[in-house]
Each structure stands twice: as C-alpha cells, then as structure tokens.
Amino acid sequence: MAKVTFIGGIASMRGKLGDTIFRKTVTGKIIAYKAPVLRYRKPTRNEIKQRNRFALVCRVVSLLLADPAQQRAYEKAFKKHNGGLRTLRQYVFKQVWDGLPR
Predict the structure, then answer these.
(1) Which domain holds residue 7?
(2) Predicted model pTM
(3) Residues 50 and 86 in one domain
(4) In which band, very low, low, confident or very high, does the pLDDT at 60 lie, cut at 50, 70 and 90?
C-alpha cells in the first residue's frame, strides 16, 4: 500500500502501488521501479550459511555499539578512515564481516 502525502501542493509517494514500488532516496528524489517477482524455492546450503553469517554479524555489531567505550573507539577509527561508508554501523559491520572466517 502506497503512502501519499501532500506538502505545499506537491505529492510525495512511498510504498507499493500495483506492481510499482516508489522509494525516496537520501537526496529526496522519488524513484519508481517494477516490484520483483517473488518466487519461493528452497534456499541452498550456501545461502543458509550466508544468511546465518549475516544475522550473526548484525547481532555482534549491535552489541559492540551498545557499549559506550567500544562505540567511542569505533567512532574515532571511523572518522580517520571510513572507507567510503556513510554510517558508523556500516563501518563496524564491514570490520566484523571481514574479520570472520568464511
């Protein structure tokens, strides 16, 4: 269901309308694209491993950023060299992701 808001006579749309998805970018631009066709198939062993690894890293990042001392240390490193990432959470995620064995 799409959400439409009117601001000063200009419509801003977000969500799904039919088979089209409307999304607002960081710069405020509205983008419309065709919704993906969802087909269910049983995930492969590698897909399950990747999903589990992703979930583990997300939990570790949340725990690291919950500790104020760890957060300050990561903020300091992020300011020095963020590697083109936009947020601290992305930076910490990449550090943990790259540090785990595959």
Answers:
(1) 3-34
(2) 0.61
(3) yes
(4) very high
